[in-house]
Model the fold of this input.
Amino acid sequence: MKAEQQIPRNALVWIIITQFSLVALHIQRVPIWVLAVYVFAAMWRIQVYAGRWSFPGRLVKIVLILIAFAGIYFSYGSVIGLEPTVALLLAAFALKLIELATRKDGYVLLFLAYFVCVTEFLFTQDLLIVLYSIFNVVLITTALIALHQPGQDRFNFRTIRLALVMLAQSIPLMLVLFFLFPRIGPLWTVPIKSHTAKTGMSDFLRPGDISNLSQSAEVAFRAKFTGPIPDKTDLYWRGLVMSRLQDGAWSSLQYYDVPVEHRRPIVPQLGGEPILYSVIMEPTQQNWLYGLRHATSDEPKVMNTSDYRIFSPVVLEDEYHYTVQSWPDTILEPELSNWRRQTELVLPQGSNPRTQEFARTLRLSSASNRDFVDAVLQKFNSEPYVYTLQPPLLGEHAMDEFLFQTRRGFCEHYAYAFAVMMRAAGIPARIVAGYQGGEINPVNSTVIVHQFDAHAWAEIWLEGEGWVRVDPTAAVSPDRIEWGLEQAMAQEGSFLSSSPLSPLRYRSVVWLNTLRLRYDALTWRWQSWIVGYDSERQYEFLEELLGEFDARKFAAILLGTGALILVPVGFSLMGKRKIRHQNPEDKYYLTFCARLAKQGVPRDVGEPPGAFAVRAKNLLPADALEINEITNLYTDLAYAGKYLGDERRSTLLRDLDSAVRNFRVTISSA
Amino acid sequence: MSQTDKNHISSGQIRQHLQARFRKWINRRIPPSRSITLDQRRIFIFPSRVGLFFGLSLLVMLITGINYENNMTYALTFLLATLFVVGVLHTYANLSGLTIHAVRAQSAFPGQQSEFEVVIEKGRRRPYVALRAAWPEGSERVINLIDQDSVRVRLHKAVGGRGWYSPGRLLLESTYPLGLLRCWTWLDLDLHALVYPSPVVSEALSGLATDQPDGASQPIDGNDDFSGFRNYRRGDSLKQVHWKGLAKGQNLQSKQYTAYADRSVWLDWDMFPGLGIEQRLSHLCYWAMEFESRGDEYGLRLPGLQIEPQVGEKHRDTVLKELALYGVSERHL
Done:
């Protein structure tokens, strides 16, 4: 192997650091044994470096690869799909280290490393993750540079400086390309995330589900209103409309559950002033979206269903940015079809008999449906019902148990009981699951909706009013609606009790809270402008910035920025900064040589002064004395200068200087 | 002549023609010089094979970005693409400003490796890293110029036939810092090695022309008288060294003999009648070396040239140089 092709020790250390730094981001996503492969590979390679072990043979390599495949198969049940592919890539990335022998292997490994960076982005483009990934790119680039520094047998931290400089010089042009490069849709379908857990609200609501979700301080979505933010008590973010009650759980009607003639959403008469806002949802791996009632959108990626919710045609694998208009005064479904009425009234046979009986009795004693609703809410309000995050488990006739025995429940218990009572009394009713309220960020006036804002309420259909929202929780705990969960649970102390480190628990620490809100505002900007920069935004942005846009402007901007960056860089690298730190005696002697060269006696490269003097004297016998003197002075200074005293040295230098000065005079007069 | 033959010949001719054109072009662009400073006229730069592989990787990343509509993947792809562009400057700068001086070339016999020495000097304070210097089909060296300002590089290459041997253009290249681009130059440093004739053993010389000093015509074998010691000088034959004295811890001394006739011989062009020029030179070369190693004085007579008998390294070099350059038009290069 040529010396040039070897991996310098410095590069090896950087490569190992890079590998661990890269896999650190994937820790939560890959099976634990993949991490073990990294430790194993690093140990093996270090042993090879120390000369104790050798590189693996072909058979060993094949066995290792097969083991990796088998491991992925056993961990994921398949090797197809994004997650198994990424895990396999990570395992291969680790194993490549063991056979890292030549520079060529180094290239393969480091280009793979850049790609590992990309795989991280496929899962999250969170600002902090991206910042950490930039650090990783610096590491990879450093390792790539270290690969070309032969003879670095010691770990050298300075290598990182050049990497930083080069990447910094690359950023301006990168930004131009980023904003100008046309965003075209996918060229072909790609493997999707099949193993990532679904998050947020699920389409299957049992008592206790939302109180579980409310333990989480994760952000569900952020919304920014064009006008003023509506009152917090009006922020009912509808997500799922659950019309079907089966086996003690509510769920929404699937597309094929709805008869063909009822599948198309009935476009209601839009009424009142619309509220305009845009929403960025965190990935959920589900496809429903959230909006205030009644939400419509011009965007093709926001669709309506017949029960007036919005959904996305694709599963939300990444942050999802959409813009909606809500018409709060719209009457939803003034006329109810028979099928719809049937569907919204049906109750499982023989379930919760006591509740049903109670509802029918109460309805008979009420003058109207409205009175009946008020009476039910009055019951929740006046009787000792408790709003709690820690509801007791319920048995077969859950609502009978809840209403008449335990009387402790979270929003889904109240909504469930309410809907059952309505249906029992012949009023079409269903449960709506979504979020209520949100935190207003004063920094940029966005509404941050967290998972603990998850909420369930009921919708009933009333003659002439259409679907009307009724939130029984408000009757039990008005604080929840007005102030949010934290206030409602102040006495119980159960708010975020399972996540003691969440910054949301420390909202009373002012500087910490300011920091959190500032970061959240940054996140909004990041998600809407960078992560969410799509063809539409690009069009808007470029139109606003440059007016009519065409290929000529594109080229001009690209070249202009390129020149603006590269020309100064080139100058700083190649400017005329000739080093000049000659000894004075060298300077004088070279002047002397230059004078002789003018007379047609040039000194050859590498010719010793003595030999040159002999040659020069032969050709210019008249100047033999001077040539001798200068040569002697110079050789004394150059070869014995170190051993002369300072005083003697400066005397000799003066002599040499004047001898060289006078030398010209001698020749020209001769 | 068949069609394929015609094609074959013409493609060979085209290649020759192109090579000749390249030589002419590069001779004009980087003319031979004893000392060359690298600037934009002399430096070539092009993506290396690794660079093309890198480009391919970027393409895969770009397609991933497009298919997953993932903006950070776009950003990373563009960052790396720009890094490549910035790399052009950094790679170029790693060669730009260097000055390469020809120092000397060692003389050698045909087929031997000769040592060519050059000095690479940096023109800027910046470090220059991983410069690879090589002669085509010769040895190579990788040089760093980090703290020092210049470095002396000795490269070896097998020389050709008798006369001046030019090692061709020196390749100086570097892929530092990223390995994605290759920056190189071909330098004709006007550096020539003297190649002696290939020594060929011949029968004992028949008509040894001896010198005729002062009437002494005694046979020279075995009649020398020992006359004393003198300090060893370079060039003294090892046979004359007073080894016993050395063993006793004295200085290295040579025994001196007085010969009735000096043991000086003339190596004469005319000693090898009927042989070609190169053969004569080869035999003369062999005998010059032989006498040198015996410590005998020898002179050389070539048509139009005479070197008085002497012995010693310097004398040998003079004799061999004359043999090497016999009939060569350019005596000094």
The CA atoms of residues 125 and 531 of chain A lie 7 Å apart. The radius of gyration of chain A is 39 Å.
